[in-house]
Amino acid sequence: xxxxxxxxxxxxxxxxxxxxxxxxxxxGSSGSVPTVELGSEVTSGGPTFPEGYLGPRITERKPxxxxxxxxxxxxxxxxxxxxxxxxxxxxxxxEKFTGVKVQFDAVLMTAPxxxxxxTKINAMLAGGDLPDAFLGIPFTTAQxxxxxxxxxxxxxxxxxxxxxxLRQAMTDYPDLKKVVAATDGKMYTFPGINDCFHCRSSPxxxxxxxxxxxxxxxxxxxxGTAVWWETLQNPRLILGMPEVGFRDEKGQFMExxxxxxxxxxxxxxxxxxxxxxxxxxKAVEILLQD
Length: 290
Known about the structure:
Helix content is 24%, strand content 17%.
């Protein structure tokens, strides 16, 4: 049996790689593959998408399997979040939604020092005990190319007609193929897409009312708490979930606490208009004194 790696990762997250029956060296293509199209979009009662939205939409879909086939997938053991993959509610929903029975084989991949341990995965590859797919296994692009050339992994390019959602994602994100392609240019993994605005913007995100700053010339008080903001299905509703609170050197939470500067300087609106920053000038003056 040959294996494939399904990669779930616009950050590309380790995903799903596929394996096929056959002899090493075969391409893994089943010949003429029928093209599957997305169903009609469900607009009644669904979420409202903002203009310019890119991403999955709700479409009409029907199970394509009859439950007679079992798809074996090797996954990392995850007792803290997933638990038993085969008893997971998401697994039950997936099987009902697709009509495909999935057997998950969880493999311990964490070494005593907390690093990733690929020993058992490597033993599977060496011994030919291959599943239908690997999910969430962090194969490198070089490994994917090597195993593909050896006939262990199947090129997903041959089966793109069966993946309408992934085809749409590659239309929305033209560079996606470059991100997930192995060193030989082929795609041995189906990627997952994480185009999370919060994740991309949080490292340097700051929204400041310039008109407010111009008028008062003083710092804007913060909440002292990191908050996760999510736009709900109704885009006019935004939910904020406090995640991390900050403490000062005395151990007191800074929530609702104004952080006062050691030296207060009020910026004059006229000077700001002329390109002068009195607060910056004072800071430089004090630093030069040291």
